[in-house]
Amino acid sequence: MDIFSDAYNIFVEFNEKFIAIVFLSLYISLLATIIATVVSLCVSSLLILKNFIGKNFTLLIINSLMSLPPVVVGLILYIIFSYSGVL
What does each C-alpha distance from 65 to 21, 58, 70, 73 come to in angstroms? Predict the structure, then answer.
């Protein structure tokens, strides 16, 4: 029960470390959202406006990847980028 009371006290008292962690998490999430938005808008406008060889295949791959749950994508990226992973 001591762990739960410590967690509750940190949350209620707004500890400086707690606030720093929350703001860092929000900052990273906002930055990642902005970067993903800019990249996706550029790629989507390229796919809409330009005709090129393999456009239908590219759209098929992108639509297939969007149907995957985020947990599956996270696990695949973890396997690829982990210390003993592919890369």
Answer: 31, 11, 10, 9
85 touches 79 (CB < 8 A): yes
Q: Which of 84, 80, 63, 61 is nearest to 72 (CA)?
A: 80
d(CA 65, CA 87): 21
Note the pLDDT tens digit of each residue in 19-71. 888 899 999 999 999 999 999 999 999 989 999 898 999 999 988 988 999 89
Number of alpha carbons in the 13 Å side-chain half-sphere of residue 27: 6
